[in-house]
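Batch job 17 of 40 flagged for manual review because the log was empty.
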Amino acid sequence: MKTRYGVALTVIAIAGTFSGWSAATRAQQSAPYTDQQATVGQAAYTQSCAACHGRTLSGGGEAPALAGATFMSSWGPHTTQELFTRIRTSMPPENPNSLSADSYASIVAFILKANGAQAGSSALTPETNIAIVSVANGQMPAGLTAAAAAPAAQGRGGRGRGGRGRGGDDDSTAAAPARMGLTLAGTIKSYSSITPEMLASPPEGDWLMHYRNYSGWNNSPLTQITPRNAGLLQLKWAWPLEDGMRQQMTPLVHDGVMFLSTNVSNTVQALDARTGDLLWEHRLGPMNTPGQNATRTMALYGNLVFYPATDATLYALDARTGNIVWKTRPAEFPDDKIGGIMVAKDKLLVGITRCNELDAKDHCFIAGYDAATGKQLWKFYTVARKGTPGGDTWGNLTDDQRSGADTWIAGTYDPQLNLAFWGTGQAKGSSRDQRGPNGDALYSNTTLALDPDTGKLKWFFQNAPGETLDLDEVFERTLIDHGSQKTLMTVGKSGLMWKLDRVTGKFLDVKETVFQNVWAAIDMKTGRTTYRDDILEKKPGQAVASCPSPSGGHNWQATSYDPSNDLLLLPLSQNCAMYGGGPQLFYEMPGTDGNLGRLSAYETNTMRPVWSFQQRSPFLTSVITTAGGVGFVGDFDRTFRAFDIKTGKTLWETRLPTTAQGYPTTFSVGGEQFVAVPTGYNGGSPEQKPTTMLRGEIQRPTIGHGVYVFGLPKNVN
C-alpha cells in the first residue's frame, strides 16, 4: 500500500553547539526584520502560539522550545523562509494557514529577536531566505518576555463563543466580553455530602471521580444498556461549551447533578443530569491563559467541587451554590500549571505540570491539601535534586538544569494499603543529547507510591530510565487483584503494558501492545529497559526512527478495566516519527495497513490479547465499560460508538459535531441510565499528529465543543 506521511512544526529540542557555529565567538550581522515588526510579532505570538509554546518560548508539555540552544540546534542551519513556510502550513495545528502572511512573517521576526538576532532596517517577508544561524545566536535579550502582554480576550483558535478563528480579521466583528463571576447562583437542596466511604464505594448511579473509582477502572455497575438494546440509544440532551483551547474534561455526576468545566474561560457549571438544565454557573477566569494545558480532572468531596484553573489557581466551590469556599495557588512560578487532581480520603492530591523553567526552585511536584480548608500539608518533588535520594541519577547537572517529571495525569488510590499511585512524565529536555550525559533522571517516567497523609515515598519503579524520545509514562495506574496478588497495571507512550506488585513495586510482567522499535531489550527479571544502540549514540541534530511517535502508542485517553471478564481495554495509536533532527516526519506504523487507531482488549491475569478493532481514525476519548456488557469510545472523525466488551463488535454509533474528545461517563437518574461524551477539537499530540497526517482526508469543524448525553427510549429494557 502507499504510505502516507505528515510533517508538523514540532521542533525537536537538542542542546549543544551545532557544528560550524559558536554563539560565543561568532560575529552577527543585522537580521532582515525591524523592531516594529518583531513587536507586532510578539503580540501575534502571544495570541496564537503562547498557549502551547509558552510565554517565554521555552515550550512545555508536547510543544518544543522556540528559543535558545535547543531551537538553534534544530533550526539554526535552516532558513527563515523554511521556518516561515513550516509555521504557515502547520500552525496553529487545529487551523493552519489561518493568519495573514504578514502575521506569520512578524511571528518569525519575533522568534529571530528572541534568539538574539539584531533588528535591521528592512522587514522580513515570506520570500526572505537566509540561514537562521547567520543572524541568531540563541541568546534571548533580557526582559523580552517578562512583561509580555496578556492575550487578547478572543485568544487562539476563535473569537469567544463559536469565533471565526482568523487572527488577521477585523476586530470589529468580535463579540462583547462575557460577564465573569457567579453568573447564576444555585439553590441545589437535595445534594448529599460525599464521604470517604462513598469515594471508596461509589453509589451505582454516580460518577464521582475522574476514573469513577479509586482503582482507575472507568467501569460502571449499571446494567440497563446491554448488547441487545444498545442499538436503540438516542440523544437525550446536549449542552454547548465555549470553543477554544483544549477541551478534554470529565463530566462528574452526583445525586443527579452533573458538573462540567470549560477550559477557555475557566467556567464551572452544574446541570440537571436528567434534563440538561443549568443549575448554577461560575465564570472564574481568566480567559485564554497563555501556555494553558487541558483541564481533564475535577474532584468532589463533602459539599465541594474542586477545579484547577488554567492559571494554576486551585478552587473549592460549594457544589450546591457555585460560591467560592477557598482558593490557593500551589505553584509560585507564572508558567507552572496544575495537572491531575484527586481526593484520597479527606486529602486533595494535586500534581504540577509545565514546571520547566531553568530555575533551581522550579521543579514539578505532587502536593497534599486539607480538602476542607485548602491548607497545604506536604509536597513531594518529582525531580531529585542534588543531595537528595536519587539526586545522583541526573549526573553532573545542577539543580537549575534539572526539569520535567510532570504529573499531568491524575493518580489512583488503594484505601486498604493507604497508598496513592501516580505516574510521572519524561525528563526535560526530552532527549539525552539535550540534557547531556546523565543517568536515569529520577523520578521521571516513574510509578510512585505515596502515603497520602504525609507525602512519604513508599516505593517507586522507573518504567523508562533516562528516557530520550518524549515517550513518557505518566498515565493512569490501574489497580487489579489477581487472587491474593495485588497488582498495578499501566501503559505508557511506548505501548508497553506493565504489571507491578502494588504492595512492594516489584516488577511482575510486561507486554508490547503496539509495534515498537525503541527498546532493544527488556530484562524480564527486573523490568529494566535498554534502548537500541543508535538511540543511545544519537548526536545533536541527528534523527532516529521512533515507533511509536511522541504522540504515543497510548496517551491520556484512559483505559478501562472490566472485572466481569478480566479485560483491560486500551485505546491505542499507531504512528511513528523520525525524531531528533528538526521537524518531525510522521508515518504509519508498520503492519497497520494505514489504521492509525486501535482498540484492544487484554486479559490482565495472563496478559493475553483477546480482540482488537482497527480503523483509520484514532480514538480520542477514554474507554468506559459497564456491567451491562457494553463499552463506549469516541474518535477523531466525530464518531461515538457502543461496542460489545467481549468481542469488540460495534453495537451502535453516531456522528457528533466535532471530534469526540475527553472522558465519557455513564450514570443513572430516576432509574434511567445515561451516557455522556464531551467533544473538542484542540488537544496535544494525540490530536495534533493525526491532524497533520489526515489533513485533506478527514474534515472536521473547528467549532463544536460540548457535551452530548444519550439514553434508551422510554420503556426499553
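Reviewer: the log was empty due to a logging misconfiguration, but the result itself is present. The chain is about 10% helix and 30% strand. Unflagging and moving on to job 18.
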